[in-house]
Design brief:
This protein has 146 residues and is an alpha+beta fold. The chain is 49% helix and 25% strand. The chain contains 5 helices and 7 strands. It has a 5-stranded antiparallel sheet with strand order 2-1-5-4-3, sandwiched between helices. The chain has a two-stranded antiparallel sheet with strand order 6-7. It is globular and about 45 Å long.
């Protein structure tokens, strides 16, 4: 099960945080800063998997943004890494060459896309085409309601 999904920039600012397990507010802030400090110190030649507390942290850096998944140690780490890649690829197609500013100014769309992708800490949909079609449908509803 995925416990949380984070997007952090190189300065350690959390741009997107989606929590699937209950954590206190102070614990969330502490987890975000500890994970950032752990990842920023790791050499790039190391793997993208980190044992952190009682969890496995899987991360990937794209264009200066860390995409981080925290899951159970029994989960398939390679599948989680592939899930990150699929999410980034879907973001790239949706925003046409996504950048950090897209994540900041269109955070509600990123959350909607993430909700189409992961539900309740489990992978809901693995087809990029289906996710993009659903997002287009949501966009059509928004246009009609204005």
């Amino acid at each position: 099960m995925i416990h949380f999904f984070l997007l952090q920039n190189r300065q350690g600012q959390t741009r997107i945080a989606k929590w699937y397990s209950p954590f206190e507010h102070e614990e969330k802030k502490k987890l975000q800063s500890e994970i950032y400090r752990t990842l920023i110190q790791r050499p790039s030649k190391y793997t993208n998997f980190v044992e952190f507390r009682n969890y496995s942290v899987i991360y990937r850096r794209y264009k200066g943004v860390f995409f981080i998944i925290c899951c159970d140690p029994s989960d398939n780490e390679m599948a989680m890494l592939e899930m990150i890649h699929l999410f980034v690829d879907t973001l790239n197609d949706y925003f046409v060459e996504v950048c950090e500013l897209d994540l900041v100014f269109n955070f509600y769309k990123v959350f909607a896309l993430l909700d189409e992708f992961i539900l309740g800490g489990e992978l809901q949909e693995s087809s990029k085409r289906v996710i993009l079609d659903r997002m287009a449908l949501i966009g059509d509803f928004e246009k009609k309601s204005k």
